Amino acid sequence: DVVMTQSPLSLPVTLGQPASISCRSSQSLVYSDGNTYLNWFQQRPGQSPRRLIYKVSNRDSGVPDRFSGSGSGTDFTLKISRVEAEDVGVYYCMQGTHWPPITFGQGTRLEIK
Amino acid sequence: EVQLVQSGAEVKKPGESLRISCKSSGYSFTSYWISWVRQMPGKGLEWMGRINPSDSYTNYSPSFQGHVTISADKSISTAYLQWSRLKASDTAMYYCARLGSKDWGRGTLVTVSS
Asked: Which among A11, A49, B13, B73 could bridge A41 via Cys, Cβ 3.0 to 4.6 Å?
């Protein structure tokens, strides 16, 4: 199984400041079709997960442009340029390149300082 | 509008059977895999498996293979997650999702307690 390792696991951030979450995979996530199936999800308290980013850097519709994804191979990053109160929650990376199983990171809890 | 509408919360006893559902609308049901994802209380997301509704082909995580069954009825655009013998450790929120797209159900809370 591909292991997805996120850091940090807890991320206290001041409102208006940037935030960054790292996700590393135990093997390259480049698929045979040339795509890299690495997604980012946000789960607000009491809600279902919501996809923010797909295939490393593509923002889903309705996702604020303060969210961005980058990376390649085994090393990926989700950045929030200026954290807002509504960004509180847990963020997960997920790989869909090597399956089964599809695997998620452990989650990073973002809180406001 | 794409919707994945999940069945309501369940309270069961250990050893009982259960089937929960996920009804899809707003898109062609047979065109997208449906996954099931478990979230135990206070924990992260775990992929359990998925089904291709066009032919009911399934993939399972080794962690869940043999303990749950995923099925689908394309005549009513509904996917299912089923247990034959529940354990207390099955207590969790279960989500259906189109992981290849951005759509998730609201989750079904399953509580297993004697």
From this structure: A49
